[in-house]
Write a structure and sequence with these properties.
A 5-stranded mixed β-barrel has the order 1-2-3-5-4. It is built from 1 helix and 5 strands; from the N terminus they run E-E-E-H-E-E. It has one helix at about 40-45; strands spanning about 1-10, 20, 30-35, 55-65, 65-75. It is globular and about 35 Å long. The chain is mostly beta strands and about 80 residues long. The two termini are about 15 Å apart.
Length: about 80
Amino acid sequence: IEVEGVIADINQSEAGELNIALENAMFGVTCTFPSTMSDKQRELTQKLGIGQKTEIKGRCDGKLTDVRLTQCSVVFN
């Protein structure tokens, strides 16, 4: 699935995964990038910042109060 939004938060888990939360008026979208992402994806994610609009694609792992995407990659920066 591909989503577009404004970055609300960026953090890294203890396992080395990068988590990006996108702002949304109705629900949240959390995108998790694997710690084993390619060098190109790592370069793109390092350019991302809070308040920046971006497009991310990933596998939808569920929707409860928010949408969770895993195995993500940046589509547009």
